[in-house]
Every structure is written in structure tokens, then in C-alpha cells.
Amino acid sequence: MDKYNTIMILGANSDISKELVLILNKEKKINKTILISRDILKLKNILKEKINLDNSYEFKSLNLENDDEIRSYLSDIKNFPDLIISFIGELGTEQDAVKNIKRTININYLLPSKFIELIGEQLILRKMKNSKIVGISSVAGQKGRKINYHYGASKSALSTFLSGFRQKLATENISVLTIELGFVKTKMTKNIPFPSFLTDNAHEAAKKILSAVYSSKEIYVPIKWKIIMFLIKLIPEKIFKKLNF
Ligand SMILES: NC(=O)c1ccc[n+]([C@@H]2O[C@H](COP(=O)([O-])OP(=O)(O)OC[C@H]3O[C@@H](n4cnc5c(N)ncnc54)[C@H](OP(=O)(O)O)[C@@H]3O)[C@@H](O)[C@H]2O)c1
Fold first, then answer.
1. Where are the alpha helices (DSSP H) in 86-148?
2. 1 lies in some domain
3. How large is the average pLDDT for residues 51-77?
4. Ligand 1 centre from 227 Cα, in Å?
5. CB distance 199 to ligand 1 below 6 Å
6. pLDDT for 2
7. Where residue 18 sits, what CATH number does that domain have?
8. pLDDT of residue 1
9. Which residue has a Cα nearest atom 11 of ligand 1?
């Protein structure tokens, strides 16, 4: 299905999300865009430089720690979105993550999975068959590395949750798509020296996400990263543990 009526984006200030909004604005396939962000003023200011923010755009700030607030907001929506994408994530240094494991798990796993679960409740209740939930995860969740194992473990948990939730919602004809991105240059990764041949910019990543959304895929991993992760997983742990990457 390549036609959705209303999209809801969580973590809408994500650099990739903003590019996705610009592409959708050009495509004109979506009638309404709901953007959920901690900083809607900043988001509005950035977007209004590039597109006309007419009344087809709605902005909302939510306390994602508060289930009741989320539930009440979602249940009050009249025309519920049929495409929902969560971009929430945070990648700090591994030293910071070790000091505050709970924060890493909270932002990369608990907050998005809880929100998606509440979205799923609404989609079932409203019998919104053919709707789609998309979770943005990472190839970092496929194999632990010393530079980001807490982030990787949280993304791994998110991908596992999405797999189980996909199975749960399949009987309702509601799709759940897992996107596992590789390297993307954004504010999250601005200090990481990624090799350019393996790195997408936010626009390229947004295009890849959208084409996966319009496909019937369950899991999308960029092809280069499919090959890289396949090869990495072939390396025996005895050797892997000595590698410096
Ligand atoms: N960049 C990469 O190389 C890469 C690779 C693999 C996967 N990913 C994943 O792709 C997604 C988008 O990342 P990005 O590169 O576009 O990074 P980004 O620009 O830093 O966006 C991440 C967004 O997550 C939301 N967020 C962060 N901390 C939060 C918190 N405590 N509570 C609620 N929301 C919070 C923020 O949205 P608001 O400011 O709107 O609230 C933020 O803009 C993330 O899930 C990331 O893990 C990125």
C-alpha cells in the first residue's frame, strides 16, 4: 500500500524525520501530518523556512513518561493516523551510557516501545486495518561492539519488541515495520568519523525509510549493511573479541 491519509511522527525533531516531512510535502500523498516533539517551537521554526505549515500540520508536545497523558491524547484524536513512525533515540558516548544505563534503555527502548504499544491499542480498537507502525532501530542492535554496547542492546530490545508486536498485530491486519539503519550523518552522530562510503545523509536515509514504508517488507536493512552484518556475524567470537572496531 503506498497511500496513507495521516502520518504521526514521534521524535519529529530528528534530522531524518525532518527530511522525511520535506519529502512527504513534495509527494503530496499524505493529507495530514502530526508531529510529536519535545521542542515544537524549534521544529516549527526549522520547517517553516522550507514548507508552508498550513492546517494539515499539527504539532504536539507530550510527556512520554506519562502513560495516562499519552493514552488520553491518543483516545481523543478523531481521525486517527494510519501511518505512525517513531524516530526516538539517543546515542551518547559509551562512557556516558555505562554511567547511566537506565537513560539509554529508557530513550532507545522503553519510551518508543510503550508509545507504540499504546498506538497499537488504538489501531485495534478503531479497527484500522491496513495501518502501519514503523520503529526506527539500528544495525547496532544486531551485534554488540565495545564502542556502543548499551545503545546496541537497547536497539536490540526494540527490534525484538517490534518483531513480537508485528506477530501480535498481524491477526488484525495491522503492519509493523522494523527499520535498521546503518551510519547516517545527523546531529546524533556529528562527532563520529564515519567512513563516507558507508554513510548516508539524513535525506538519503529518509528516502530509504519511505520506500520501505511503501513496500510490503517487515524488516528493512540497507543492502550494504545486510552484507556487512552477515559477514560480521560469521566471525567467531574468539576472533571478534580481539578486533578493534
Ligand atoms: N544517525 C545514525 O547513524 C543512526 C543509525 C542507526 C539508527 N539511528 C536511529 O534513527 C533514529 C533517528 O536518529 P537521528 O540520527 O535522526 O538522530 P536525532 O536527530 O538526534 O533524532 C533523535 C530524536 O529522538 C528524540 N529524543 C531523543 N531523546 C529523547 C528523549 N529523552 N525523550 C523523547 N525523545 C527523545 C528527539 O526528538 P524530539 O527532539 O523531537 O523530541 C530527537 O530529535 C534514532 O532512533 C536513532 O537511534 C540513527
1. 94-99, 101-105, 111-125
2. no
3. 97
4. 25
5. no
6. 66
7. 3.40.50.720
8. 60
9. 87
Q: What is the mean pLDDT of residues 141-162?
A: 97
Relative to beta strand 183-185, strand 83-86 is unpaired
Ligand 1, atom 26: nearest CA belongs to which residue?
Answer: 88
- Domain extent, residue 235, equals 6-240
Tens of pLDDT, residue by residue over 110-129, are 999 999 999 999 999 999 99
Give the strand pairing for 175-181 and 183-185. unpaired
Of the two residues 51 and 94, the one the predictor is more confident about is 51
Predicted TM-score (pTM) of this structure: 0.97
What the block records as the C-alpha cell of 4 is 496513507
- Identify residue 95 by its one-letter amino acid code: Q
Mean pLDDT taken over the chain = 97
- What are the φ and ψ backbone dihedral angles of 220, each rounded to 5 degrees? -120, 125
Residue 182 lies in a domain: yes
Within a domain: residue 70? yes
- Edge-first strand order for the sheet with 6-10 is 57-60, 32-36, 6-10, 83-86, 132-138, 175-181, 219-220
Number of domains, the chain: 1
Strand ranges (DSSP E) for the chain?
6-10, 32-36, 57-60, 83-86, 132-138, 175-181, 183-185, 199-201, 219-220
Mean pLDDT of 59-73: 97
Question: pLDDT of 185-218, one tens digit each?
Answer: 999 999 999 999 999 999 999 999 999 999 999 9
The helix or strand, by DSSP H or E, that contains position 87, with its residue range, turns out to be: none
DSSP reduced 3-state for 30: coil
Match 514504508 to its residue by C-alpha cell: 213
Could you tell me if the CB of 47 is within 6 A of ligand 1?
no
